[in-house]
Write a sequence for this structure.
């Protein structure tokens, strides 16, 4: 029995190593953030281009919130290792502003896909002297 134990351990390690392969994160699908905003990303094409919709739960305007179109691209380089970087633009349907997002798709330790992003919103200004307050 002593001779069989090392073989079983090696077999277990070999089978367990298959589960350690790189976790892949897919941008396609519906995403919801901490504030209740949600977006749906349609299929990402072979070049990394995608489209979808964004429905925000928060706004600085008094206008009725409407679903807005988004367009983006995902980095398809060899160093992405299944957790790609991406960027997309939302053209808000209910205000005179556009927001750009950039981020990365991660798979956490429990296997959950998570998007980490940063954004900039540019609002329309009537004149250049108010340009300083147009970007948030």
């Amino acid at each position: 029995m002593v001779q069989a134990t090392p073989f079983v351990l090696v077999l277990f390690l070999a089978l367990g190593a298959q589960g350690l392969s790189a976790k892949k994160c897919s941008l396609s699908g519906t995403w919801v953030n901490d504030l209740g905003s949600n977006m749906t990303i349609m299929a990402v094409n072979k070049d990394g281009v995608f489209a979808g919709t964004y429905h925000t739960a928060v706004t600085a305007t008094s206008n009725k919130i409407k679903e807005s179109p988004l367009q983006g691209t995902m980095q398809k380089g060899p160093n992405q290792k299944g957790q790609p970087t991406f960027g997309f633009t939302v053209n808000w349907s209910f205000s005179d502003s556009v927001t750009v997002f950039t981020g990365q798709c991660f798979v956490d330790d429990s296997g959950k896909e998570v998007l980490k992003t940063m954004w900039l919103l540019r609002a329309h200004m009537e004149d250049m002297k108010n340009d300083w307050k147009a970007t948030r």
Remarks:
- Strands lie at 29-32, 38-41, 49-55, 68-74, 85-91, 97-107, 113-123.
- Confidence is low (pLDDT under 50) at residues 1-21.
